[in-house]
Amino acid sequence: MKKKRQECLWGNRISSPRARCLLVIVVLCFFSLFSSQVSAQENRNISINKQNVPFEEIVREVETQTDYSFMYSTETVQSIGKVSVNVTNVSIKRLMDAVLIGKPCTYQIEGKVVIIKIKEQPVQDTIRQKAVKIKGVVTEADGLPLIGATVVVKGTSVGVVTNATGNFELEVPADHDLVVVSFIGKTSQEVRITGKTEINVVLQDDVQSIDQVVVTGIFNKSRESYTGAVKTISASDLKASGNRSILSQISNIDPSFNIADNIEFGSDPNQLPDITIRGRTSMDVNVRNLQEESSVKSTANLPLFIMDGFEVSLQRVMDMDDELVETITLLKDASATAMYGARGANGVVVITLKRPEAGKLRVSYRGSVNIEAPDFTSYNLMNAREKLDYEVAAGMLDDKYNPNNQNLMELYNRRLIEVERGVNTYWLKYPVKTGVGNRHSLRVDGGSDNFKYAIGLSYNNINGVMKGSSRNTLSGNLYFQYELKNLKFQNDLTISYNKNKNSPYGSFSEYSLANPIYTPYDDEGHIKKQLVETISQTSRTPDPAGNPLYNASLPSRDDGSYTNIQNNFAIEWKITSDLFVRGNFGFTKQDSRTDKYLSREHTSFDTDEYKGENSNMKGNYTYTTSYMFSYEGNLTVNYTKIFNKVHQLYAGLSANLAEDKDESYSVTGRGFSSLNMKNLGMAGAYALGKPTSTEAHSRRLGLIFNVNYTYDRRYFVDFSGKIEGSSKFGSNDRTAPFFSAGLGWNVHNENFLSSSNAINLLRFRFSYGTIGSQNFSSYQALTTYRYFGQENYKYWNGAYMLGMGNPDLSWQKTKQLNLGVETSLFNGLVRLNVDYYNKLTEDLLTDINLPTAGGFSSYKANVGEVRNRGIELDANVFLIRNSESHIMWSVGGNLAHNVNKILKISNALEFLNSELLDEAGPNPSFLYQEGQSMNTIFVVRSLGIDPATGSELFLNKDGERVYTWDPKDKVPFGVNEPKVRGNLRTMFRWRDITLNATFSYRLGGHIYNQTLVDKVENTTTAVKRWGNLDKRALYDRWQNEGDVTKFKNIKDFNTTNASSRFVMKENALSLNTLNVNYEFDTEWLKRHCRLDYLAIGFYAEDVFYLSTVKQERGLSYPFARKFSVSLSVRF
């Protein structure tokens, strides 16, 4: 009765099925979805006149005229054969009766789904009396029901198909005990039913499924005989690991895809990440760039990104919609990347986009509301009273030796009054907000067996936590595929537009440094330009401190945009069942611009440089425009053949050519007399007197081969290679060969394990090969010149040499060995994969010193060597996998361990190392030194703070205790890279509810705690001293004789140089993603809402971060916690 009452109330209030669905969406997701659906009326009549045609043609015609869909297996339809029908204005039931008359099949209508199934054959009464009735459910590996799966008694034509919930009932004759369960695209299963009345069957994907095929971007290989180290990530894996960026989702799944923790820029949506796979292999940067973040440093070690066979930029991947992605494959070792030759040393990320399927028109939509909240948990700043207490304890407001001591005392009294009346400005709140963005993805696809199409549109609006910062991407996609006999034509066009804005509030560090005793507004509510006035010229009294909010109130501009057009065209010719040829050609064009404007009132112009006659030069506008165009063509031949059932041969041959062009122009205008002159043409003068420009142009050509042989699905060998030429390298060494060889053993296919119920998969892999890297400047091998554009002699322009070329400059070469083991136990309940690798990179590009008399200090040459060795482990265990109760619970984890070591450097780097080791300063030195890691920290060893004096004791290179810091005593002290990093994950599914959680951890690495240096001890400048500090500057510094502390005398304002006191071992744990997803019942949706799929999800990302090192994170841009609610619908 209760159920009937609910249905009555629902029906009385809402009579329209479409309105019922809309109400559910509004109540559960708190936002409405506007969608239009053109569908036929339920009783719409059907008219068909077809003679002697395949049954599938009738199906297509019905789906065209109505909104009915069909479910059937290939075997079932083949038994129908060709049919003839001539009907006018009939119902679906009348039509099916006419079509299937006299055929061995029947039909069943459930909602808008027509299920075609084999008729149950009559049996003799004596046998029927002894027949066994069984029932069960057929599901996919992830627990979803399989609709239309065929369940047939083996050796008979007795069978049924599963209904909309995957359930079936079947009477099995008494003299049979085997049933065969099959479905298109799945591996069929034979199930013995002796003594059973209920069975549950899980069908796995066949050999062409995601888990069994390795997509390399050039050749698709069977995983069973693949020797390379790869990680395949499905679309469902991506959704479970986050809802924001594809890059962070990959990192949450595989730790070998390492995104460096950026404590400087935190959650800034406009910052490109620093990514490496299996360690750094290149050091083509000036060593001085290592002392700070360098985009050149990041680019040199960046992996290659390939999307549907063509190279794409990191920026393009960061902005793309993950709803377009079918799979992502990480290629890690030489066997996997050798076919990419000089571009494969840093690893390859292969992205495969979704393709449409034949059938009726399908509309898919996914939308989400995304919220970002600033995270200040890493900040430990003083409040106003603590800051005043610090100034007193440090002697800043009571100095009897200062002639202005009376003024200081008056300043103290004024500040004390402010504190007592409750002034305690929380500066961190002013530049931030709770960012609310949204994301939408709409896709329409369908077609016939010969012609398929897909149209997609996506929009991603990211509002960062810094006020005014945002990133918006609008993208459209058009794909079609046409098949004519044995030819297939494909074209994929994508157009993207991105608009990004940086916050006008400047760097977040300005607010964390602002003194809480100051207020941003005066008593009348006007914003202050300066927070404190100068009392005297002595260094022990406050200097003017700019109000960071003042600059935010001025007219300004700091934004950029780009338009990207990418088109990929392919032709595939299937010559025979074993041989096919594929050719593709793609091009990418991108136009970009950036604009940055600071008005004349900006506090950055309050310096001596802009006083006097230069005061009219205040105000600055920089305009930059860039253009990029690239094309690539490939021709590939693939051959596969099985001989005598045990010998399987695969051979592939590919040729490719590519060209890349980049240009950029920049001009800076100075001298804007009015605040609102936000136009470059209003500048009074131009910096440097003229615009600047850069240009890069390169070409490459390659020939690729791959051969794979498998014997009896047990033993396999693999050979790959590429001969590649590039214009980036010297004229004497333009081409280079790259190769790999591998072998493997499928132990589980041996006779002694073939019947094992415990070991389902046991595979050993070994590979070795050589790959290269060319992530460098286009003209570094050439001697380059620049003209004196504004000067001439007798109408002739002079020129000077920019750089000296090297015709022998060659490729960086990485030799890599990989050993791997893959296991699966107890029908997939336990899975374990382990890989060991050893990478040796030779001929690194570094500088070679020249005699100064030649006019140049150095030139590029191949002299360096770096080694990376490590291990990767991935495990997963199903604690519960009960299909009857619809409960699954799995836990898993992975880890990556890498050891980096420099084996050889050039004399130029040795000279720069010695210079850096002689320099003083509060920051540690990062050097390229033989025998050390590329991430080694160099500091002077500290023995701590002397309790008697409050001064630091050091240990020099001779082992002596000294009070004097000497840069020559710097030694390697820790490596800024964790010994182990990885992820922990868990998945729990009960019926239609799924929960996923992913944790990330780092163990054993060392970091240099810059917060202790800048916010606890190094208060050497007036801005830092009178600004805000970490609480430890008050509570943990030495103040009296006998104090045992970690930090020096609170009254010591001398510079603290790089010391081992600040090098700390870090162990960290973070909750990266928490996801809860609910999928509505498919049958109910079809019946009441005319929907095929509906799901809602909740995501929380970067929920918490725990570390053994307490330091400020998100210095220029804060970190953020992210939350989102998503809705996915398909009809």
From TrEMBL:
Keywords: Cell outer membrane, Membrane, Signal, TonB box, Transmembrane, Transmembrane beta strand, Transport. InterPro entries: Beta-barrel_TonB, Beta-barrel_TonB_sf, CarboxyPept-like_regulatory, Plug_dom, Plug_dom_sf, TonB-dep_OMP_SusC/RagA, TonB-dep_OMP_SusC/RagA_CS, TonB-dep_rcpt-like. It is found in: Cell outer membrane. Gene3D superfamilies: Carboxypeptidase-like, regulatory domain, TonB-dependent receptor, beta-barrel domain, TonB-dependent receptor, plug domain. The keyword Transferase does not apply. Residues 224-348 form the TonB-dependent receptor plug domain. Residues 497-1076 form the TonB-dependent receptor-like beta-barrel domain. The keyword Transport applies. Belongs to the TonB-dependent receptor family. This is SusC/RagA family TonB-linked outer membrane protein. It comes from Butyricimonas paravirosa.
